[in-house]
């Protein structure tokens, strides 16, 4: 599925966009018949409220879309887009005074709303509704954003029976081939020989071999490395999850899916960076050779880790991947993972919490989030919690007891494997629990558009 705007020269009907506060003035500027029609239909220009407007012969002449109030728009991202689903087939274009940010949000939201995951059940044939790219927006950039989001959603939504480490590797390699990126894959027991003992320890119990994947693209510009957690299914290992806890574990490779979507945007837009993407891909399963609670692993970096919960496996594979990435001292290193339930409890499913010690990075990212329609929230690398991840018998504890500050302690754990001064970690959820404007229930990318939009400030592009 490829998102697309209507052809710019195609005949179209207008969608008049009206804020609630401007409704009276807009009505007064239109024929009495239009005023009467909208008033009798109860149109108040509420956010997402759409009414079709007839011509003198009773045919559809156009539509009016409510933008509501500023407060309503803050509370419901992409809220205006929900009305567009009621449009009859044909090509449409936005008309009327509209803030550029709101214009771009509607355009992006419309593209995102066309997503369907129909691999296993053919979707109902949608109405052939097409929106022209609004004047003043960048249709190429918006389409690139939407296409990358579709990749991320497809990967997360695919069940583990059809998306294990092999299939994730295939998708990774296909992405690299599309843009001419160089690739590397290290699999199975070769992980031990080549210095990825914790990736091997987490994935060795599965019938599907663990691996670590890398792609490189670009020959000039600042160096940017993205690391994404690729746990294709997480049983919890010997610390087995209850059945209810496994229901969403096909999404535990959401970090990998999101960095792949971000990489696709960067490469498609030709950003002047030297990009590297690293994905450790495993399945956390149970068998006779599964890692055990209280095992002590030695990481690529040389730090020892006591495994106090085999269900805290994501930080183990990321630790080896981050250490590998850090050996090249990239100018910006970003990790993304569906790492902890504590992050979901702290900020819910909509926000992408992130950690960094660099205030300039944090400010650049936060400033980019709103125009990218991709909310983020800064969390603290809280140094006083460092003793919580030090078990005494080893350098690090992968699952501190006590149940406090779980997202923070996980982030602190990862930071121990990074010496590069400019590091950001995202503890995302990667799932929309119910249908929302431009976001169907299921897999979703978080943070990628904000990062893309913030890169010029973060890397001086």
TrEMBL record:
Which positions fall inside the Cytosol aminopeptidase domain? 309-316
Domain of life assignment: Bacteria
- Tell me the keywords, alphabetical order: Aminopeptidase, Hydrolase, Manganese, Protease
Which Gene3D superfamilies does this one have? Leucine Aminopeptidase, subunit E, domain 1, Zn peptidases
- GO CC term, one of those recorded: cytoplasm
Q: Does the keyword Protease apply?
A: yes
Q: Which GO terms describe its molecular function?
A: manganese ion binding; metalloaminopeptidase activity
Q: Which GO terms describe its biological process?
A: proteolysis
Has keyword Cell wall biogenesis/degradation?
no
Q: Which Pfam families match?
A: Peptidase_M17, Peptidase_M17_N_1
- Record InterPro entries: Leucine_aapep/pepB, Macro_dom-like, Peptidase_M17_C, Peptidase_M17_N_1
Q: Which family does it belong to?
A: Belongs to the peptidase M17 family.
State the name under which the record lists this protein: Leucyl aminopeptidase family protein
Q: Which organism is it from?
A: Aliigemmobacter aestuarii
Q: What is the lineage of its organism?
A: Bacteria, Pseudomonadati, Pseudomonadota, Alphaproteobacteria, Rhodobacterales
């Amino acid at each position: 599925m490829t998102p697309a705007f209507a052809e710019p020269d195609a005949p179209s009907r207008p969608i008049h966009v009206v804020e609630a506060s401007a409704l009276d003035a807009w009505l007064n500027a239109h024929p009495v018949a239009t005023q009467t029609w909208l008033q009798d239909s109860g149109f108040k220009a509420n956010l997402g409220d759409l009414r079709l407007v007839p011509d003198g012969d009773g045919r559809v002449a156009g539509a009016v879309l409510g933008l509501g109030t500023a407060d309503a728009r803050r509370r419901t991202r992409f809220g205006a887009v929900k009305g567009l689903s009621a449009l009859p087939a044909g090509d449409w274009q936005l008309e009327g005074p509209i803030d550029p940010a709101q214009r771009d949000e509607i355009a992006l939201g419309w593209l995102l709303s066309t997503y369907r995951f129909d691999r296993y059940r053919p979707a109902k044939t949608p109405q052939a509704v097409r929106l022209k790219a609004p004047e003043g927006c960048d249709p190429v950039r918006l389409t690139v954003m939407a296409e990358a989001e579709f990749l991320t959603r497809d990967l997360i939504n695919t069940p583990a029976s059809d998306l294990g480490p092999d299939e994730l590797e295939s998708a990774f390699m296909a992405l690299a081939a599309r843009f001419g990126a160089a690739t590397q894959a290290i699999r199975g027991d070769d992980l031990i020989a080549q210095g990825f003992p914790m990736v091997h320890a987490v994935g060795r119990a599965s019938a599907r071999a663990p691996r670590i994947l890398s792609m490189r693209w670009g020959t000039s510009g600042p160096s940017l490395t993205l690391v994404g957690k690729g746990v294709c299914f997480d049983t919890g290992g010997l610390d087995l999850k209850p059945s209810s806890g496994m229901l969403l574990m096909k999404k535990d490779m959401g970090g990998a899916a999101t960095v792949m979507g971000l990489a696709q945007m960067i490469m498609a837009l030709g950003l002047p960076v030297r990009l590297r993407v690293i994905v450790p891909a495993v399945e956390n399963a149970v068998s006779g050779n599964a890692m055990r609670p209280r095992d002590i692993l030695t990481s690529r970096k040389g730090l020892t880790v006591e495994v106090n919960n085999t269900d805290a496996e994501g930080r183990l594979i990321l630790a080896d991947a981050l250490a590998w990435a850090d050996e090249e001292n990239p100018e910006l290193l970003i990790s993304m993972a569906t790492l902890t339930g504590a992050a979901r409890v702290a900020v819910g499913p909509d926000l992408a919490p992130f950690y960094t010690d660099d205030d300039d990075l944090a400010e650049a990212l936060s400033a980019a989030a709103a125009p990218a329609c991709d909310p983020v929230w800064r969390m603290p690398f809280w140094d006083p919690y460092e003793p919580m991840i030090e078990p005494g018998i080893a350098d690090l504890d992968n699952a501190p007891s006590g149940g406090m500050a779980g997202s923070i302690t996980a982030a602190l754990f990862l930071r121990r494997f990074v010496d590069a001064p400019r590091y950001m970690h995202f503890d995302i959820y990667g799932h929309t629990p119910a249908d929302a404007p431009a976001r169907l229930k299921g897999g979703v990318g978080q943070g990628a558009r904000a990062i893309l939009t913030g890169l010029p400030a973060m890397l001086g592009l």
